[in-house]
What does this fold into?
Amino acid sequence: MEVLKIATAGSVDDGKSTLIGRLLYDTKSLTDDKLEAIERNSKKKGYDYLDFSLATDGLVAEREQGITIDVAHIYFSTRKKSYIIADTPGHVEYTRNMVTGASQAQASIILIDARKGVIEQTYRHFFINNLLRVKHVIVAVNKMDLVDYDQSVFENIKTDFEKLNAQSSYAEQEVTFIPISALKGDNVAQKSDTMPWFKGESVLDYLEALKPGQEEHTAARFPVQTVIRPKQDEFHDYRGYAGKIYGSSLKVGDAVTVLPSLTSSKIKTIEFFDQKYDEAVAGSSVTITLEDDINITRGDVLVKSDEVPQSSKSLTAAVCWMDGKALVPGAKYEIQHNTNRILAKIDSVESVIATDYSGEDGSKNQLTLNEIGKVNFKLSKNLFYDTYAENKAGGSFILIDLQSNTTAGVGFIG
Amino acid sequence: MSTILKTNALESEAIYIFREVVAQFENPVLLFSGGKDSITLVRLAQKAFYPAKIPFPLLHVDTGHNFPETIEFRDKLVEELGLNLIVRHVQDAIDEGKVTEETGKYSSRNMLQTTTLLDAIEEFKFDACIGGARRDEEKARAKERIFSVRDDFGQWDEKNQRPELFDLLNGKIEIGQNVRVFPISNWTELDVWSYIEKEKIEIPSIYFSHKRKTFVRDGLIWSASKYVYREEDEEVLERIVRFRTVGDMTCTAAVESEADTIARIVSEIKTSTISERGARIDDKRSEAAMEKRKQQGYF
It folds into this structure.
């Protein structure tokens, strides 16, 4: 079955948990015991409606404080698709969590409270969806029931949002506006007759029609994860390169170049378990063998010989900083780019980018937790890379702190 | 005619994770319970490294209160695939006085497994423990990372987890730390069953409808066994049941079911209105039961 990964971000009051709960409820994804627990807890809190947020807020701290921390994953399915929602909080101090959620997503839902309109958080959510180039964005104008399902409220918010969209760095992004009431279920799973002026689809109908697997076609990239060498007689000379294909499909007979050695060969077989295939599409975890016996190890990347990317000992990237210790010039980190790790030194912080589209600040020479900025790196070795706009897998990396080993940040090569 | 591999996104993701484990760690192990999720993991590992054999051992933490069908199945699987199986017993930790057997109506060795697991990690110096936990099972598990770092006490620091972006998994750790790895994090119960059906994977007989001596407590169907405490007024009856999830006898309840084939199980789950862990006695202890256990090093 097809899987669609969706990111949501929002604050306690804009009804995001209610929207997710509503999607689960209307697709009959909540089992009786979970539903009973929600009913019980809602009653205990003295609510006269079902508090669906209880279905999604997982940790003890969250239940105590009534807030969502971190990234939670929620699952539901229809006849057509399996859905995975990565749910994150929306405040500025959770920017790193929103970036994490969006990095996995093929679609994103931005919630706006109809009574409040476009607020600072909306800017930030949309900015992150631009930066990470999430193809489909649904702007759900929620709580329409509290503004008497008034079309002009919806249209005004739409106009405000489109001003924002004009500043987007990702022109091909598909932005769709849907007026909803998560609490009442209007336009969530089904089209509602409370808003006959709205001609579009419900949130779920829109998601059901998306075909994420078929739309992104960029240069094929095959980062080698590990080399398979069975120690059995029948496979004596077998050398299989295990990895996942990104960008577009690979075929038997394709002329390929190995990065960084730039040696060339042809694809001899594409294997998945005990079967051989002529072609495998992007997203497949396969094992590839080559016509020639060349030295390939983890971290190397197979690309088509006519699609070799640029290489350099330096690079510039938009970085989202995720660590309490600030990023400062001169500091060294390990860059994990695909399956390859190399040492890198921060050359300079060019600017800190405001997530509300108000511009860049070139006066600060550091990045602190949850800030996004343009950073110049010097690399210990020559690296072959794409820009993020050309190729998501070849144009992104994480930064690993050499002392704590933690993932300190993520970079999008510009 | 040309053949094109049509990829299954969840299967591809799991295989990718297995390969990252082998590339990033020196001494991984697969935690095997004999349940359907760990059996599915074995199949995925087989696919990830074919034609080579699965390049890590299996570890079973045996509570001593297992269903005999599970143990039988485990031994057959290990034999057929030529796997390396390590078994460590909760009984040993009890005998050594490290843990105390629970007593009373709800006594179970489920909590005691943690000590045996942590001892085995130390004994074999495992740096990555692969498990079949899924985010859809339970609320605290919904926040679990694919690579989840534990300190040398096995503790999970849920507020300070590493961000996981794209497919970029960071398995760098210090000596003494280890990583719990969850390749089927993003699968649901139905995904697992559909996969078992499609791949024709064999599973222990207790998953299928059978006759069993049982009694009812708190609305759940318990196995009547010498390992399960029973009050005198709790009446034992033979019922047609099966298990949806398999822990040991003291923490797994049965469901009444006529489903005797995988296809029937799949259709039963599609129409089921009770969640899988609804039959886990261990989760009923409190709303935060799983989160507390995880902080202490439980899987």
Summary: Chain A has three domains: 2-214, 221-307, 310-413. The domain at 310-413 of chain A is CATH 2.40.30.10 (Elongation Factor Tu (Ef-tu); domain 3). Chain A has seven helices and 22 strands.
